[in-house]
Amino acid sequence: MDRDRIRDIALKHALVNAVKFNGKASMNAVISKVFAEDPSLRSMAKEVAQIVKEVVDYVNSLSLDEQRNLLMSRWPEALGERRVESYRKGIEDLPPLPNDSKYEVITLRFAPNPDFVLHLAVPGQP
Asked: What distance in Å separates the CA atoms of residue 24 and residue 52, rounded to the nearest whole number?
């Protein structure tokens, strides 16, 4: 891979990282982003790390305004939010319990794993 292409990828991610964190890019974060964008670069990890170090040092030497202007001139979409939030049903979306008026107590149990689903135990039902 061309050193200029690696430098370009590193510059983009270093600028994004620096703008998000008050003008100081993190070398480890930038290296991770570079490898995520182009996994074929992992075989050249030492060379990529050296290039990223040079780019991060350059980006950190710029002021925050210079970083933001350079980022906006070359990659205006880079700061756009890409987070897609999925809709998770809440308690208001649950159907009512059958014959809920005849039950005095409804027990809520949590599974041992906190990532698991909440289980409603209604008396007389499993």
From this structure: 14
Q: How many angstroms separate the CA atoms of 17 and 23, rounded? A: 8
- Taking only the tens place, the pLDDT of each residue in 102-118 is 666 666 665 666 666 66
Beta bridge partners, 107, equal 121
Q: Are residues 53 and 105 in the same domain?
A: no
Domain with 111 in it: 96-121
* Same domain flag for 100 and 60: no
Cα separation, 9 vs 34, whole angstroms: 6
Is 51 within 8 Å of 10 (Cβ atoms)?
A: yes
Write out pLDDT tens, residues 37-55. 999 999 999 999 999 999 9
